[in-house]
Known about the structure:
Layout: H1 2-25, H2 27-39, H3 45-59, H4 63-69, H5 83-130, H6 137-150, H7 152-168, H8 174-183, H9 193-204, E1 208-210, E2 214-216, H10 225-259
Antiparallel strand pairs: 1-2
Amino acid sequence: MAAAGAIPAAWGALVWAVSAGLRELHPLLYLVVAAALFKTTFSVRMLAREAKRIGDLLAAGDLAAARRRMPALVSRETGALTASQAAAGAIESVAENSTDSVVGPLLAFALFGLPGAVVYRAVNTLDSMIGYRGRYEYLGKASARLDDLVNLVPARLAAALLWCTAALLPSMRAAGAWRVAWSHRRRTASPNAGWTIGAMAGALGVTLEKPRHYRIGAPAPPPDSRHIHQATRALYCASLLATALAGAALVLAATLGRAA
C-alpha cells in the first residue's frame, strides 16, 4: 500500500516542482520540457508498431516468430499459441491499451495537468510491473486495485470512443461494438478490461479469447492478421478523438476560468 500510494505521489510532486520552477525561468523552456515529459505518459505509435509486426508475421505464416514477439504486448505464456490466439492477444492488447496508453493519460492531463498525467502513468506502470497473481501477489495487490479505481472512467470512455471509431470506419461495426462491450463487459477479471476488449471484438466481428480466462465476442469467428491491422487503425482513430476531446476540455476550462 505504501508503494502504491507513495511512488505515484512522489513522481507527481517532482513533476509539479520541476514545472513550477521552469515556468518561473522561461515559458518556452517550460513548454518544451513539459511536452517532453507529457510524451512519456502515453504511447500510440509503439503499440501500433508492435501489433502490426505480429500481424505481418502471421500473414507471412511465421507463427514461431510471432510467438517470440508476443511478450512485447502480453504477459501470458506464448509458446503454444495458435495463430488465431496470437492475433487475439495482439488485438486485446491494442484494445486494453487504448485506455492505459491513450485515454487515461489524456483525461488525467485535461483534469489535473501534467502532474496528474504522470501520477496516472505511475499507477498504471506499477500495476503492470507488480500487479500479478502468484507468490508475490500481495506485493502488487494494492497497486492493481488502485489501477482498477483510476481506470473506471477512462475505460468506459475508451469503449465509447472505440464505438465512435467503429461508426466512422467503414470496415467496422458500430452496433456490434456497443452490444458486445455492454453484454460481455463482466467476463474479464478486471472491472475495466472487458469494456474495451468487448468494444473491439464487436467492432471487428470476432471472438477474442484468452484460454482459461475469457471468451468475448462469441459466437463470432476467431481473428486473423487482417483484424490486427484493422485494430491498429481503430487505435489511431480513437486516439485522434481522445486528443480532440481533451483539447476541448482544456479550452472550456480556460474559458470558464477567464469568465470567473
